[in-house]
Write a structure and sequence with these properties.
Radius of gyration: 16 Å
Helix content: 25-40%
Strand content: 15-25%
Shape: globular
Number of strands: 8
Distance between the termini: 29 Å
Length: 190
């Protein structure tokens, strides 16, 4: 039903918790394939991906071009983009399935991001986390929230652009009107 594309570069340690969080989606039959879009890592990122059964694609192209090429190499009707180190909470599978089911009936709502952790989700928020919470409260979305998007919408907005801030630019192209927030939280593990 969906393919997951994970952007990596020297990400062996941060990739492990991200892939572990995807296992429930694979066992539930939600995830068809995980593609690792790597920027030429020299650490053990490739070995981690291979051990987890992911398809590993290496490119020296900028991030946007890597992600767009990885998306073009898949065929599922839904795509989920994550950064290495982004870990969706255990309830993400149900939240994603509900969104995909609802998206068939709601015009325009074909993309969603994970909910950023709230103050209640954080035991002792750092100053950086407080600023991220304020940004999210004001309606801002960040690439660290991941992206679940229907392929037709991804293609209609042109996919990831080639620029340096490809993920942010894609979120702007999608626009707030077509972007929902899943009921599940995604945390960034460093």
């Amino acid at each position: 039903m969906l393919n997951v594309i994970v952007a990596t570069h020297e990400s062996e340690r941060s990739l492990v918790p991200t892939l572990a969080a995807l296992v429930p989606g694979a066992t539930a039959g939600l995830i068809g394939e995980v593609v690792i879009a790597d920027a030429g890592s020299r650490d053990a990122t490739a070995e981690v991906a291979e051990f987890a059964g992911c398809r590993f694609v290496v490119s020296s192209e900028p991030l946007g071009a890597r992600l767009k090429a990885a998306a073009a190499s898949t065929r599922s009707p839904w795509l989920m983009f994550l950064r290495a180190g982004v870990v969706p909470d255990p309830g993400w599978v149900g939240a994603a399935e509900r969104f995909i089911d609802m998206a068939r009936f709601v015009a325009g709502s074909r993309a969603a991001v994970f909910r950023p952790p709230g103050v209640g989700d954080l035991l002792r928020p750092s100053l950086t986390e407080i600023f991220k919470l304020m940004h999210a409260a004001l309606g801002g979305t960040r690439p660290e929230q991941g992206l679940l998007i229907a392929r037709p919408l991804y293609e209609s907005v042109g996919g990831h652009p080639a620029g340096a801030d490809a993920e942010k630019a894609l979120l702007r192209r999608i626009g707030r009107q077509r972007l929902a927030t899943l009921g599940s939280v995604a945390r960034t593990i460093r």
